[in-house]
Amino acid sequence: MGRLSSIDDHHRKTDMTHTVRVPYFQLAPKAFKALYDLSLSVKKGTLGNRLVDLVFLRASQINGCAYCIDMHWRDLIQQDADARHLNAVAGWREAPFFSERERAALRWTEIVTATPHSDASDEEFAQLQAHFSEVEIAELGFAIAAINAWNLLNVSFRNPVPESV
Prior knowledge:
- By secondary structure, this protein is mainly α.
- It has a single domain, classed as AhpD-like (Up-down Bundle).
- Helix content is 67%, strand content 0%.
- The chain has helices spanning 2-14, 24-27, 29-43, 49-63, 66-78, 83-87, 100-113, 122-129, 134-156.
- It starts with a helix and ends in a 9-residue tail after the last helix.
């Protein structure tokens, strides 16, 4: 009983308030616009919108950013992605829905997002190079960096998922 009550206490202390702590997008508009422009640049780049949104969705799942998970799931649905496929992104290794190129990007996303607790080894990088050009790899790096920045901002400032869109 003591263990369960301590878990309940922990959840009460860490539950989402559904109220943004700081409206960072209003308070730091130049920085916000710079990060927004980076995200747009990557989406308009060589990787394609769908792949970038899959990367954004996977990193957001890893980082526990509900705001970004919701946003990129909706973006992918608007691109006619199958909801069943999107629901399998977190388990992409076992799901048959993803191409080898998408799998390489999702794997690299996991490795980079988990830095420094993971190893972006030469072997892992060679697997990435089998599916992407150097330009695409550079853009993938910026895509992963951008979504991780958004995730950190939204989670730390508790930017809530909108009730309706």
